[in-house]
Each structure stands twice: as C-alpha cells, then as structure tokens.
Design brief:
- The protein has 14 helices and two strands.
- It is mostly helical and 297 residues long.
- The longest helix is centred in the last third of the chain and has 28 residues.
- The structure holds geranylgeranyl diphosphate (GRG).
- The site of geranylgeranyl diphosphate has 15 residues, from helix 4, helix 8 and helix 9.
- Geranylgeranyl diphosphate binds next to helix 4, helix 8 and helix 9.
C-alpha cells in the first residue's frame, strides 16, 4: 500500500539524516574543529529536496534504497558546500542559513572555506568507494555526471554568471541560462543519479526524467525568487529580500511577482507532461513537483 506523501517525506528524511550522519566524519576525529563544522553545515537542516528527488527516481528505477542514500548524500554534500561558500563574505555575505548562523559566522572564514572543499571531496569519495549499481562503467558515468553538474559547466559556472550579473539587466534567456546552471544542474543530477542506481529504466525514459529535471529545476528557482520577495526571514531560515538588496536580476525583477508565479506554473505543467509515460509509477515525482512549486519556504 502506498503511504501518503507527507509520511513518505518524513520517513525518508529521518532515515537519510541517519545515513548522512554515518557517512560524515565523526566530530571526535582529528581535525575535530573541521569535522564538527562539516557536520554543522550538513546535518539538522534543509528541506532535502534533492535527496527526495533521488529517492523518487530510485523507486521508479527499482533501486536498492541503501545505494540511493549514498548517491543522494553525494548530491546533498555538494549542495551544502555550495551554501557554505555562497554565504561567505566574498560571495553573498550572509549570516543566517537553515535557521542557524552561517558556517563562517559560527566558526570562521578559513574553516568555512575548508568545510566547502572537504564536503565536495567527500561527495566524490562516496561515489567512488560505495557500489551504486552493477555496472562499473555506469558508476563512472555517475561520478562524471555529478562532476559536470557541480563544476564550471554546471553549478559553479552558474554562480560565476550570477556574480557577474549583479546590477545588470539580463534578458529572460540569459537569466534562464544562469539558473539552469546554478540551481538546475544539481537538481537534474539528483534525479538522474537516483535513477542510475536502479536498472529498470531505458535511455528514452532517462531522457524524459532529465527533461523533467530541467523544468522542475528552473521552477524551483523561479519560486525561490518569489519567496525571496514575499516570505519572511523566520519562515525561510535565511535572510529574505537579499536579491533586491544586492541588485540581482531575478524572475521577479524581470517579470514581476505575478509573471514569475505564472512562469512557475507553466514550468510545473510542462514538467508534469514530461512524466506522462510513467503513469502512476511517477506519482512521487509529481507530488515532489507540486511541493517544489507550492512550497512556502
Ligand atoms: C559557491 C560554487 C558555489 C555555488 C553556489 C547553489 C548556489 C551556488 C548558491 C546558493 C544560494 C542560492 C540562493 C542558490 C539558488 C539555489 C537555491 C535556491 C538554494 C537553496 O536550496 P534549498 O531551498 O535549501 O533546497 P535547503 O536549505 O532547503 O537545502
């Protein structure tokens, strides 16, 4: 029997928190301060949207849950590293993340830099040292997939464009390009990595999932832009209104709140269409897409 969506989310979040805790170095191990700060940055916070997407596609592909935990942890470590570095004074210079002081505020800047570096390295260590699927060549492709999604042709590249676009008026295609890389690449990687842990899906179905990931990754960012204007700091767990304060081009600055909302709903509808051929099997992905577009934090 299928459990309801909220119970499914809660069960995965609880189990995943344990898995993450076991995969991170223990805080008592030397260098203790760095390990404590890595755990601070990763554990006890965040919606875990990317891991949840990986669990949903893992289920679709008939994957072993323990394998998906490792793939999802690798993605979440990259995500956590990006948040730690993004919050530093040389980038967004923020003091609040996931309802807690940011890593460089709680520790110091040098430690935060090393936390990000170490989380990134650990992500790839996990993908290399755990068996994720039966085919070794496919596992190598999974490692490459996350590397490309995180690097200069993915998230870090999108961040570089973001930093260079402060104070500029971007066109809609330019903004899309930036966010497909900065935010979308990792969301897409989570979706594909979860699916690669199983063996049930063929290349056409993987392409459909990739297309779904592209659309829902972009929708995630459009909603993030809206929430940055509309939600308060306590609800978001991070400083609200930062985009306008920093004079950053966003979907809201380009389309207005209503236009941005309409765009999110259009992307949502297109993402649902990409799942058509999966039928009921893709129900969790549909529910996650609804959650991403309707979320309030
Ligand atoms: C520093 C290489 C480097 C990249 C940074 C992802 C990113 C690029 C910066 C984070 C800041 C930001 C607002 C990015 C847009 C993506 C986004 C909305 C991140 C927040 O993701 P959530 O809402 O966060 O999933 P939680 O805390 O729930 O995990």
């Amino acid at each position: 029997m299928r459990v309801d969506f909220q119970s499914w989310i809660s069960a995965h979040q609880v189990r995943f928190e344990d898995a993450l805790s076991g995969l991170l170095p223990r805080a008592e191990v030397v260098p203790q301060r760095l390990h404590e700060a890595m755990r601070y940055a990763v554990l006890d916070g965040g919606k875990r949207v990317r891991p949840l997407l990986a669990f949903a596609t893992g289920e679709l592909a008939g994957a072993d849950e323990a394998r998906v935990d490792v793939a999802a942890a690798a993605v979440e470590l990259i995500h956590a590293y990006s948040l730690v570095h993004d919050d530093m004074p040389c980038m967004d210079d923020d003091v609040l993340r996931r309802g807690k002081p940011t890593c460089h505020v709680q520790y110091d800047e040098a430690t935060a830099l090393l936390v990000g570096d170490s989380l990134q390295a650990l992500a790839f260590q996990l993908l290399a040292e755990h068996r994720l699927c039966e085919d070794a060549v496919r596992q190598l492709e999974m490692i490459k997939l996350l590397a490309v999604a995180s690097g200069s042709r993915g998230m870090a590249g999108g961040q570089a464009i973001d930093l260079a676009s402060v104070g500029k008026a971007l066109t809609l295609p330019e903004l899309e390009f930036m966010h497909i890389h900065k935010t979308g690449a990792l969301i897409r990687a989570a979706i594909l990595l979860g699916a690669h842990c199983g063996s049930r899906l063929g290349s056409v179905q993987m392409e459909k999932l990739d297309h779904f990931g592209k659309l829902i990754g972009l929708a995630f960012q459009v909603v993030d832009d809206v929430l940055d204007c509309e939600a308060d700091t306590a609800t978001l767990g991070k400083t609200a209104g930062k985009d306008a304060d920093n004079d950053k081009p966003t979907y809201v600055s380009l389309l207005g709140i209503q236009g941005a909302r309409e765009m999110a709903h259009r992307l949502h509808r297109e993402a649902q269409v990409a799942l058509t051929e999966f039928g009921d099997e893709a129900q969790r992905l549909r529910e996650l897409a609804n959650f991403i577009v309707l979320r309030k934090f």
